[in-house]
Amino acid sequence: MKNWVNKRRKSISEKVEAKRKAKEALEELEKAEELTESEETNELVDNDEQVEGEKEEFESFFKEVLNKFPKKISATILSTYDKSKAQAEKILENSKSQFDEIFDVFLEGVDEETKRKTHATVHAASLTAAIVGCSPIPFSDAFLLVPIQLTMMGRLHKIFGRKFSENLGESLTRELVIVSLGRGAVGNLMKFIPAVGTVAGAAINAVVASTITQALGWVTVKMLNDGEDIFEDVMSFKGQFNMLFNALKDSDKS
Asked: Taking a C-beta distance cutoff of 8 angstroms, is the pair 119, 53 a contact?
């Protein structure tokens, strides 16, 4: 009888212990699920904030650039804004996965917060450049990149707390923008062909406009992050820009 009682007690004790462990395991699982949900929520919030931040940066950037253009040019760009923006966004989306790895090399060592801010500015500049590239303005869009790129470089310098000389920046960007004229000229000529020619020509220029702007932007970020002065190390700047832009063109061909 005594042995039976002891066995019974042991059995009950084991069941109680098993239930306790099961309860603890369930509580741990619930905590893990809550933590995962919290992390997912935070990630979604961060993504939403980033998207919203990029949207605000673009709107501010685009408005600033339009104010630097002659009124007739701004009016022409605005007249086809919705169509040009939709086309420009597709172009940037198509090039994103293709060029991201190349750009990442120029972002090594940049902290996450600075990376986020510079990404918003370079994206705003690239989208603006692509929109202008999609606009029906023959033989002018290449040089309209200059005020876009000056605005971008000025904002990037501000992010790093550095001074920016717009006069020196203008002479530098005017020289670099020549790189886009080779392929861009084809698109400009095609804009004089009615209907289809305009669309095809715009697409070529938008790709060139956004690519050259992104290349300029990330070289600027790299040099600022490395503590280099763009205007004192002009040869280094031009060399890095040409190297990156050629890498982008080679990637585009492949």
From this structure: no
